[in-house]
Amino acid sequence: MNILLLIIILALIIMLILIVRTDKSKKRQFVKEFYSLGTTMTLMVNGKKGEKALDEAMKKVMNIDDKMSVFKDYSEISKINKNAGGKLQIVSEDTYFVIKKAIEFCHLSQGTFDITIRPIVGLWGIGSDNARIPSQIEIDNKLKLINYKDVVLDENSNSVGLKYKNQEIDLGGIAKGYAADQVKNIFLNRGIKSALINLGGNVFAMGEKTNGDKWKIGIQNPLSPRGEFVGIISIINKSVVTSGNYERYFDVEGKRLQHIIDPRTGFPSESKIISATIISDLSIDGDGLSTGVYILGLDKALSLIKSLDGIEAIFITEDKKISVTAGMKDNFKLCNEEFILDKRSDLNEN
Ligand code: ADP
Ligand code: MG
Questions:
Q1: Under a CB-based contact definition with an 8 Å cutoff, are residues 308 and 291 in contact?
Q2: What residue numbers bound the domain in which 157 lies?
Q3: I need a surface site. Which of 5, 162, 245, 271 has the fewest CB within 10 A?
């Protein structure tokens, strides 16, 4: 009789422990959503150290925005822009690193990615309340100012400048990638093993999901409202960055004018690519490349990506064809039959 009682008590204790444990593990997922760098950011962390890591990560992203935003008068980028044509400006390690890295992508993309694009971006105002179609004269005048080769860097003093008055830097095409890498580093330093970093479509999937699965990342249908996917990829410890025509745009006379500007024409890109996704280890690489290849057009974009180690891509063109580079071909799962996988992606096989 006594033994039976003991067994019942023991069983109850074990049940209680199990309940408390599962309850705890449920609480070990932390999510933070906030607005920074012109977009909504969602950070999701698994593990009990998550809460503090999220606070530190959010502070870092806000700090990057403070340093690099063209919309903040006190940012380091505004300081460089205000002093264009004059003295170099001392900047933080963060800003120096991003500008230096960005210039590498300007070279790589044959100048289609150009961080001095700001005067033209400002003229069009796409994504702002002042969006409009500028005149050819206005565009021609501003085009003269666009040239990333006029960015002057001095490594010794950590300072940056622009050769000519009225030139302006815009890191909008690369800052989110850098921020995602910084968030990942903060998580790593805090011992986080599993997290999903989503900085307005700039995604970094860290570690595995809690059930050991890979993260499934949807590639947005660029022709549909948000939330519809054309396909899905499964990844671990990779960045997935998409430049798309649906991020910021304005529709006029049946034409969609989107926010990625071709520095060769001063007009929104007409390359026929409407979505360019880069899969890479570093998010700054993905962000820096996605904007440039979007403008380059499919053939040049495929050969550029092929020439780079450890970088994969998914391109969608306006004729609803999807081209996937060799390393992603078995991974990419098409989930919208209106789109077709283009055979030409075979071009990219080594
Ligand atoms: P998103 O901001 O939607 O993630 P991108 O990374 O492609 O997309 O960046 C687009 C932003 O980059 C624009 O909003 C603008 O600030 C800037 N930009 C536009 N055209 C260019 C260009 N040719 N080179 C560099 N930056 C650009
Ligand atoms: Mg980009």
A1: no
A2: 72-162
A3: 5
Both 103 and 211 in a single domain? Answer: no
Q: Note the pTM of the prediction, 2 decimals.
A: 0.89
Q: Is residue 11 part of a domain?
A: no
Q: What are 229-256's pLDDT values in tens digits? A: 999 999 999 999 999 876 666 666 666 6
**Same domain? 77 vs 45:** no
Residue 47's pLDDT is 87
Does the beta carbon of 217 sit less than 6 angstroms from any atom of ligand 1? Answer: no
Query: How far, in Å, from the CA of 115 to the mean position of ligand 1?
Result: 9
293 ligand 1 Cβ < 6 A: no
Q: How far is CA 60 from the centre of its chain?
A: 16
Residue 227, pLDDT score: 74
Atom 4 of ligand 1: nearest residue by CA position: 243
CA–centroid distance, 236 to ligand 1, in Å, is 26
Whether residue 109 has its Cβ less than 6 Å from ligand 1 = no
Q: How does residue 17 score in pLDDT terms, banded at 50, 70 and 90?
A: low
Residue 12 falls within a domain, yes or no?
Answer: no
